[in-house]
Amino acid sequence: MSWHEETLHHHVRESLRIDEVIYEGATAFQQVKLFRNSSMGVVMTLDGIIQTTEADEFIYHEMLVHPPILAHGAVRRVLVIGGGDGGCIREVLRHPVERVVMVELDEGVVTLSRQHLPHHSEGAFEDPRLQLVFDDGAKFVEECDESFDVIIVDSTDPVGPGLVLFQEPFYADCRRRLGDAGVLVTQNGVPFFQRGEFEMTGRTRAQLFAHSGFYFVSVPTYFGGAMALGWGSDGTNLAAVAPETIAGRYAAWRQVPRFYNPAIHQAALALPNYLRAGGPKAGALT
User: Fold this and answer.
1) Where exactly are the structural domains of the chain?
2) How are strands ordered across the β-sheet holding 31-37?
3) pLDDT 10s digits, 88-127
4) Catalytic residue among 149, 154, 173, 234
């Protein structure tokens, strides 16, 4: 018996027992390992860092996708940056969208996910509405001339190659690619431990967009409390869409996700006092 152990933050480690190694190797960009854990199912790590697990991925992917789409209310074109495991596009394609462009840097992650994590995508990679592009996400957004209703950034944390996806030039390029009511949503880490990243990205989006903020979701795999999902828009204020509007759109959608519902949508928008500007200090000491 062996264990996968990773240092999450300065003084915090997470361990998962490895019941079976499914794959271990390298793509053109990073080291990949897939193993089975009796509680979490198949687990994927990139460069030794857990990215996704079979057991709880639905919580993260549903909350990344459904709040912006239902808040917008008329989404037809969606851009997904990252998301190589396929979970994000699976949820997007549950909606009556016309076109989804997914830009993933690492083709190897997609290949391995389709082989070993098929329940993440559930056939989404074969959907004719999907255009799959293997390219640098920041470069794609900078150079493309297409407009999107929602842009979803399903990225790693702001370290290494992922850092550029948390900075002002990338957010500004996304803003230019959004339609009038378009919404940008980004994975934003766990602010209990990543308070600096939370505050930095929040300030940046507030400077660029007429409306911006965060909503939250607790995913067991992502240790440390609720994960923040950051958003920005010039035409849709996620925090101000009436609950009855969300409920009506949800009912018309006629889908029953495993996690998301209108009550969860509203609760996720609540900001803890310790994360409010000028609020009481709380969270990790280092």
Assistant:
1) 2-52, 57-275
2) 20-26, 31-37, 41-46, 49-53
3) 999 999 999 999 999 999 999 999 999 999 999 999 999 9
4) 154
